[in-house]
Design brief:
single chain; 156 residues; alpha+beta; 60s Ribosomal Protein L30, Chain: A
C-alpha cells in the first residue's frame, strides 16, 4: 500500500500549516546535518500570535499546554515546508521531539503536554510512527511562553 501524501492527509484532518514566524536576523530556524533536519526553539503560535504564556499548573492548564505543543509542532512542519530545501513529503520520520516547559514546582504531568503531538504524528505518519522525546522543566522561555519544542526530522 502506497503512503498518502502528507499535504493530503493534513487537508483530510482540516489542518492548515501556519506561515512560520520570522526569527530575528541571523538566527536560523533549522539546520540540516546529513539526513537530519534539526528545528530548534519552536514556539507556540495560534492565529499568528504567541499563546499559552505563563506557568503550566498556575496560569496555563495541561490542555492549553498540550494545544501549545501541537501548535509548536505545526510550526516545525511549516519550517520544513516554507523555510527549508525540503517538501513535507521528504519527511521520512520524526526522530525526536523535546519539550521545554515552564511549570509550577509541583507539576508532575509533563508527558501529557506531548500527548497531542503524539496523537497528531500517529494520524499523519501512521500508527507505527514513534519518536524519542523528553520533557524538560525550565525556569523561563522566550516571550514568557510555557512550551517550546526542539524537533529532529529524518529526510529522504
Amino acid at each position: 500500500m502506497k503512503k498518502k501524501n502528507i499535504e493530503t492527509l493534513l487537508e483530510e484532518y482540516f489542518v492548515e500549516l501556519p506561515e512560520p514566524y520570522t526569527r530575528p536576523s541571523g538566527i536560523s530556524a533549522s539546520q540540516k546535518m546529513g539526513k537530519y533536519l534539526h528545528i530548534k526553539g519552536v514556539l507556540p503560535y495560534l492565529d499568528g500570535k504567541l499563546f499559552a504564556k505563563g506557568k503550566i499548573g498556575a496560569v496555563v492548564s495541561v490542555d492549553q499546554a498540550a494545544k501549545a505543543a501541537r501548535s509548536a509542532f505545526l510550526q516545525a512542519l511549516a519550517v520544513v515546508k516554507y523555510q527549508s530545501e525540503f517538501e513535507l513529503n521528504d519527511i521520512k520520520s520524526i526522530v525526536s521531539v523535546d519539550a521545554y516547559l515552564v511549570a509550577q514546582e509541583t507539576f508532575t504531568e509533563h508527558y501529557k503536554v506531548l500527548s497531542n503531538v503524539s496523537d497528531f504524528v500517529a494520524k499523519i505518519f501512521g500508527p507505527k510512527a514513534s519518536y524519542a522525546s523528553t520533557c524538560i522543566a525550565v525556569e523561563s522561555l522566550p516571550e514568557q511562553v510555557s512550551v517550546m519544542l526542539d524537533v529532529v526530522i529524518e529526510v529522504k
